[in-house]
Every structure is written in structure tokens, then in C-alpha cells.
Amino acid sequence: MISARQHLFRLTLLLALFALGGCSAVDTVQGWFGKSGAVEPAKLQDFAETAKFEVRWHADVGSSGANVLQPALTADAIYGASGDGMLTRIDRASGKQVWRIESGITVSGGVGAGEGLVLIGSNKGDVLAYDEDGKLRWKSKVSSEVLSTPQAADGIVVVRSGDGRIAGLDTSDGKRVWEYERSTPALVVRSHAGVTIQRGVAFAGFAGGKLAALKVKDGSVLWENSVSQPRGNTELERISDITSNPVADDEQVCAIAFQGRVACYDAAQGSPLWNRDIGSDKGMMLLRKYLYLTDANGSVMALDKVSGSTLWKNEQLFMRDTSIPYAIGNFVVAGDYEGYLHGLSREDGSFAARIRLDGAIQAAPQQLDDGLLVQTRDGDLYSLSLK
């Protein structure tokens, strides 16, 4: 049996090859290695439930296809997209469809919502902006495929393309206001990493472990820093790309690199606060005093935000392609490649509840009122409570 580190190296090789070939990577563990792969996902163990998931409503927005798509929430609506171009508005209270339109593109990035716009991106670099009634406001073009969610703030739509460039588009007409680009290593991991906007600043991680803070209004660089330095004897071993969105609050910003480190910085100045040797291709959630993350092996962890020390770690989701965790109430919630949604205790990481949904859960769960909103790869949208 190969080790987890060898498995990670093989996964890096596959992702790098997909990046070079311009293909879409397979997103599940079984997809990477097949059913007879040497590294098997952990089998789920029975446990005594201390809480329960309940489905409040269920809707269908269409399959995401090969990309990771997530819904967008506004005050009274939820917007979901399918990979084949359908954009759907759903009433957030009842789950009933309000409208559905055909965008005419292959949706690879989205859905974003803000400044009165609903935003999606295509595999050919198209960015489409609709109003909340489903009317197309404008269509723009960026340098390559859009693999992450476009975001709107301060009169600017911030779009990250697959070549690592970030464009700032005017919310009124889609015209380019600014563009940020940086040199990239010879080999990079194809990822769905986007940007995180906090108080007028867009934080973005890049190939080679770099983290940058950009002013949303004009794209000017406020600071840059290195989350992780490439290590190893070969180019593949030296890949340390940041393949997920940074997380930020008013005080600090944190990012995690694939095959690298997790590090936190002062949000205003970019000065280092702490770092640890933990790698992840999924991402993190920052909530008050705590940082929740899924590491490269699928384990869910809780770290102290100030020091980076481990508070607890649940290793029972080993290699289950565990999603980004989401903390809500007394629980931390994460999905897996078989469609199971796991509720863990925020106190010690032990299992508290579990439910199986239709389709793999790739996108991070989101908060919907006093419960959760989850979209599966098959396009099923669930509103759930956890008590």
C-alpha cells in the first residue's frame, strides 16, 4: 500500500498534467485512481447521533458537470447554475423556482451576486451579468476560462481567470477597469481558486505559494507575501500553489497551499503572524477565534486563529474528497464524494450527525437563515436544518 504522501504526489502529477493539457480534472478520489486504487477512502463508521439533519426543501438547478459551482444568496433569492448554461432563481424561503433562463454558455465559474447583479463565467472567458429578474445587463470577456465565482464590490466585478490573471470590470457595463497578473512557474495546479473580498480589498493566492492584497477600486497592490516556498528535488515535488480562496476578517487573512503551508497575516499590512506545515487543495473557513480546514488527506481540523495550534482533528474522513468545512451553531459541517454530509461537534470534532444527499458534495456548504444550503455535483440544492 502506498503512503498518503505518495498518494499526494501522484495526485499532484495528475493535476499538473491536466493543467498542461487544458483538461478538466476528475474531482473524486475514485475518479483519480479507480475502484482498485491502492489508497482506499476510509469506510464510514457507525456512531450514536446527538443531532439530526432535516431537509426543509429540495430543488434542482442542473448538474455542475466537471466544475465546482455553488449557489449565490441575496435577501430573498437563491441563484444556481448548471454546467450546461441554465441559470435559475429560487425563492429562498420555499425552494420554489421563480425563473429559469438559458445563458448560452458552458458555465465554469459562479454563481456570484452583488451590487444588484447575478454573475456567471464560462470556459471561454465570458462573464455574464444579469439583473435579479433574469435580464442580461452585459457580457464581457477576460483572458481565459473562468473557474471561480465572479464577485462584485465597490462598483467593480472582480473576476479571476484560469491563467491566474485577475480583472476588475465596471459593474455598470462590464468594461475593464484594471487587470493584475504575475509570472507563474512552469507547472501549476489547475484549480477553482478565486478571490476573497473584505473591506474593499481582494485577497488572492497564486501558484508558487504567493498571496496578494489588491485594492478593489483600482487593482493596486497593497502588499504581497509568501505563504509557502517550493520544496523538493523535482518540479512536481516543488509545486506549492494556493488552490483555494484565502479567508479573512477585519484583523487577519489566512491562506493554505497545496503541498505546502497554512499561514496567517495582518490584513492591513501583510506582516506574518504564524505559519504551519499543513497542506490542502480544498480550503478553510475563518470564524471568530477559530480556523476550520480540510487537509490534503481529507481530515477536518480546527486551529486557534491567534496561534495556529491544533484544537482538534477528525481523521475519519481520510481520502473521502472532503469539502471545505463550514461552522454553524455548535457544529462543523463538511461533505464528501459519496454525497454524505457530516455534522461534527465544534467542541472536539466528533461525529454528531450524518445525512446522505444525491450526488457528490464539492462546494462548501453555506448558511441559509438558521440552517444550511448545500449544492451537490448533480445539481440538487438542499435547504437543511441541523439540531
TrEMBL record:
One Gene Ontology biological process: Gram-negative-bacterium-type cell outer membrane assembly
GO CC, one annotated term: cell outer membrane
Domain Pyrrolo-quinoline quinone repeat: residue ranges: 84-314
Keywords: Cell outer membrane, Lipoprotein, Membrane, Palmitate, Signal
Position of the signal peptide: 1-25
Compartments (UniProt record): Cell outer membrane
SMART domains: PQQ (SM00564)
Broad class of the protein's primary localization: membrane
Mode of membrane association: Lipid-anchor
InterPro entries on file: BamB, PQQ_b-propeller_rpt, PQQ_rpt_dom, Quinoprotein_ADH-like_sf, WD40/YVTN_repeat-like_dom_sf
Subunit structure and binding partners: Part of the Bam complex.
NCBIfam families, A to Z: assembly_YfgL
PANTHER family: CELL SURFACE PROTEIN, OUTER MEMBRANE PROTEIN ASSEMBLY FACTOR BAMB
Family to which the UniProt record says this protein belongs: Belongs to the BamB family.
UniProt function note: Part of the outer membrane protein assembly complex, which is involved in assembly and insertion of beta-barrel proteins into the outer membrane.
Protein's name according to its UniProt entry: Outer membrane protein assembly factor BamB
GN (gene name): bamB
